Amino acid sequence: MSKQKKIITDIGLAQRPVNPSSPGYQETFYFDPTSAKQQASAITWADVSWNTYFGIWCAFPSSTGLQPIIRPNKPINGLVLTDIDMRMEGGRAYKVINPADNSLFDIREDQMLQAILKYGIQPGGLIGGEWVWGYNHVQIKCYLTDSTEYIDMLAANNITTHPVI
Q1: Residue 44: which H helix or E strand, with range?
Q2: Is residue 164 part of a domain?
Q3: Looking at the domain assignment, is residue 119 inside a domain?
Q4: What is the C-alpha separation between 120 and 141, in angstroms, rounded?
Q5: What whole-number distance in Å separates Cα of residue 163 and Cα of residue 7?
Q6: Could you tell me which residues come within 8 angstroms of residue 144 by beta carbon, excluding any fewer than 6 positions away?
Q7: Which one in 6, 32, 48, 73 has a CA-CA gap of 20 to 30 Å to 136?
Q8: Dihedral pair phi/psi, residue 121, rounded to 5°
Q9: d(CA 10, CA 34)
Q10: Is residue 163 part of a domain?
C-alpha cells in the first residue's frame, strides 16, 4: 500500500462554532491526527466566517481559539443527504449531516454513487451503509465500508474489516 492511502484508527475534527442566530449543524473539517499540517488546515477552515465584501464572498479569520477533537474512527451510519456542491474543477461533493454529532461534511462523488447504487436514498435523504474516514493521497475522505476503494485499502493492509469497532 502506498503511504498516500491509509486506514486510520483515530480521526480529528474541527467544527465551526455554532452561530447563535442560526443554530443547526456545524460545518466540520476532518483530519488525520498524526499530521500537524492537516490539523492546522482543518482549524483554519473551521475558524473563519464567510461574508460579502463588495458583493464577493470572502473568508475572514475569526480566531475563536478553536480546539479540535480527536476520537476513535468508528463506523458511522444514519447520514442524511442535504445538498450537492459543484466544485471548481467539475467535481461534486455531496453535503451530508451526521445527526449523532451535529456535523455537516462532504462525501465525494465516487463514494456517494456506490451508496446510491447499493442502498438508494430513503425519504428525507437518509443514506444507507456504514462510513469511516481514511487518508487518500492528500486529503481525508469518508468511505463507504463496503466500497470497492475501501475494500482494496483493507486488502492492501492484510485485514478484512475496519480495525475500530
Answers
A1: helix 36-46
A2: no
A3: yes
A4: 20
A5: 8
A6: 111, 114, 115, 118, 129, 130, 131, 150
A7: 48
A8: -120, 125
A9: 9
A10: no
Instruction: Give the alpha-carbon dihedral of 125, 126, 128, 129, to 10 degrees.
Output: 110
Does residue 67 form part of some domain? yes
Angle 100-96-164 from CA coordinates, rounded to 5°? 50
Which position has the higher pLDDT, 105 or 136?
A: 105
Using CA atoms, how far residue 138 sits from 6, 17, 131, in Å, is: 11, 25, 19
- pLDDT tens string 84-109: 888 777 778 899 999 988 889 999 89
Q: What is the secondary structure of 90-155 as a DSSP string? A: S-EEEEEEETTTTEEEEEEHHHHHHHHHHH-B-GGGBB-S-EEEEEETTEEEEEETTSHHHHHHHH
Question: Are 108 and 142 a contacting pair, CB within 8 Å?
Answer: yes
Query: Total structural domains in the chain?
Result: 1
Predicted pLDDT at 2? 46
92 CB-contact burial (10 Å; exposed 0-12 / middle 13-18 / buried 19+): middle
| Mean predicted lDDT score pLDDT of the chain | 83
Terminal alpha carbon distance of the chain: 22
* Percent of the chain at pLDDT exceeding 90: 33
Please give the residue range of the domain that contains residue 108: 5-156
Closest CA to 130 of 122, 140, 119, 117: 119
